[in-house]
Design brief:
The protein is α+β, with helices and mostly antiparallel strands. It has helices at about 1-20, 35-45, 65-80, 100-115, 115-125, 280-285, 290-300, 440-445; strands spanning about 30, 60, 60, 135-145, 155-160, 165, 170-175, 180, 185-190, 195-200, 205, 225-230, 235-245, 250-260, 265-275, 305-320, 320-330, 345-355, 360-370, 400-410, 415-425, 450-465, 470-480, 490-504.
């Protein structure tokens, strides 16, 4: 706590010493951080039929990509017409676009202010400004109490052009009780027609879940990566390559999002953790689906025990303002009847209500996730999908069940209040565990041993200014039964955090 407070004070003093400055020039090539408020706003607009669902299903995106979707949403809200495709400008048929409510108009107002320069450049057909852009970004995180399992990273740094160098000032406690420190974001990005190229360190998040994601999330912090993405009228392709935690474990990720209709998005994601350094066939594979599984099988015949992970996800607008979504994750599917071991799987289902109480300013989300034991690890631990003691996927895994209810109130374009409740049931399965035999695998498959049960209440208030400061203040209270998987043990935990960011 004292270390974080001292670091934050130094960073704020540096910002004040620098004096006032004009906002940095907009650059459509700049990559928008995965947790920027614009993604949540675009998802709310997607629920109303004003934006595509993939605005939030494969983060991060470039500011240019987001600006195109904001322009499309504004046109639909203004005219009630289908609007323009997010990439080609072609008209797309809209089935289920509701008249924009007060919340939609507030979201559009905030997004148009945030991306005002990009929208102007888009309307005028201007190219991005030439030369580097100099800017400073300062972020600090203060926290007190027992950090929950889903606590995330924060960072601070200096930005030169599209290079953002960041070092996290918060101390974060891992499940084992150790303190970690690492750079949180450093990225170079550019555009080549409709293709975005990014290299450096960043945090990715794939899938529709708000409380967690099984393939890629912020749970284990940022990854060193090379990312390529391309967007068409109905398809969006993403490819990621990078080391997981050491030179002997590499991640190869591939994702395809398909706008089956204006009310349905389907996603396919794959992650392979390969042992023994970079493997060029994994790196160059452009075909989602069976190709990675076939390559893993071929590598297995050569003696490599690579770790293949697959997820299917969707967003489906049942009607304007009501979205049913889900994710099905498979670490290992047993496809032959003579294999005595169980599937290692997880999944999420959720329901998002854009305006359940009228007035257009309140959203409600119910989400349920469950995952078996044994996920993210392989026998011998040569290709574990684990970084710094955490999986880069869902924070609740393994051996866990989560029920979550979240309500968000759009107080003003730059102010959102969120309150929520979580029920977490955690079995004794530990990350990195592997079974001894088939009997052990089945006996400890799901909610094994003495189950620890947590009831948590949480609240967070976020306010932001276009291209300037943003703050989040949050508090969490929880009660834990069978704490630490000890029969009859109980405890009560408080957690408080404040995150402040400033950029110019």
């Amino acid at each position: 706590m004292k270390t974080a407070a001292f670091a934050l004070a130094c960073l704020l003093a540096l910002a004040l010493a620098a004096g006032p400055a004009a906002p940095a020039a907009a650059d459509p090539r700049e990559v928008l951080p995965y947790n920027h408020w614009a993604y949540a706003a675009l998802y709310r607009l997607a629920a109303s039929g004003l934006a595509p669902f993939w605005a939030a299903s494969a983060r991060p995106l470039s500011r240019g990509e987001v600006a195109v979707m904001v322009a499309q949403a504004a046109e639909r809200a203004r005219t009630g017409s289908p609007g323009q495709s997010a990439t080609t400008g072609a008209a797309s048929q809209s089935a289920g676009t509701a008249a924009p409510g007060p919340g939609d108009l507030l979201d559009l107002e905030a997004l148009q202010a945030e991306f005002a320069e990009e929208l102007r450049m888009l309307a005028a057909g201007e190219a991005p400004p030439a030369g580097p852009r100099l800017g400073l970004g300062v972020t600090g995180w203060l926290s007190s109490g027992t950090a929950p399992r889903d606590s995330r990273h924060s960072g601070s740094g200096v930005e030169l052009g599209r290079l953002y160098l960041a070092g996290r000032v918060a101390r974060r406690q891992s499940p084992g009780g150790t303190q970690t420190s690492e750079g949180s974001r450093g990225t170079l990005a550019g555009l080549l027609d409709e293709v975005t190229l990014q290299a450096g360190r960043d945090t990715l998040r794939w899938g529709p879940g708000a409380r967690g994601a099984f393939l890629l999330s912020d749970n284990a912090g940022p990854l060193d990566l090379l990312r390529l993405s391309a967007t068409g009228e109905r398809l969006r392709f993403t490819k990621v390559i990078g080391p997981v935690a050491d030179p002997e474990r590499w991640l190869y990720a591939l994702r395809l999002d398909w706008r089956a209709s204006d009310t349905l998005r389907l996603g396919l994601g794959e992650v392979v953790v390969g042992q023994g350094g970079p493997y060029w066939l994994y790196a160059l594979n452009p075909v989602p689906g069976v190709s990675y599984a076939a390559l893993v099988h071929l590598r297995g015949r050569a003696g490599f025990n690579d770790n293949y992970n697959l997820a299917l996800d969707f967003d489906w607008a049942l009607r304007p303002g009501v979205v049913f979504y889900g994710e099905l994750y498979a670490d290992d599917l047993i496809l032959t009847p003579d294999n005595p071991f169980p599937h290692r799987i997880g999944g999420t289902v959720g329901l998002f209500l854009r305006d359940p109480f009228g007035g257009g300013r309140t959203t409600l989300r119910l989400e349920h996730s469950r995952v078996t034991n044994w996920v993210y690890a392989v026998t011998g631990h040569t290709a574990d999908y684990i970084k710094a003691g955490r999986p880069p996927g869902h924070w609740c895994a393994p051996d866990c069940e989560l029920w979550s209810l979240t309500a968000a109130r759009i107080v003003a374009p730059d102010r959102t209040l969120e309150v929520g409740y979580d029920l977490i049931r955690k079995g004794q399965g530990a990350l990195g565990d592997t079974w001894t035999d088939a009997a052990d695998a089945w006996a400890r498959l799901y909610l094994s041993g003495l189950v620890e049960t947590t009831h948590a209440l949480r609240a967070a208030y976020t306010f932001a200014r276009p291209r300037g400061s943003s703050h989040t203040v949050g508090v969490r209270y929880s009660t834990v039964a069978n704490a630490g998987h000890v029969s009859g043990a109980s405890r009560q935990d408080w957690f408080f955090m404040w995150e402040a960011s400033y950029g110019f």
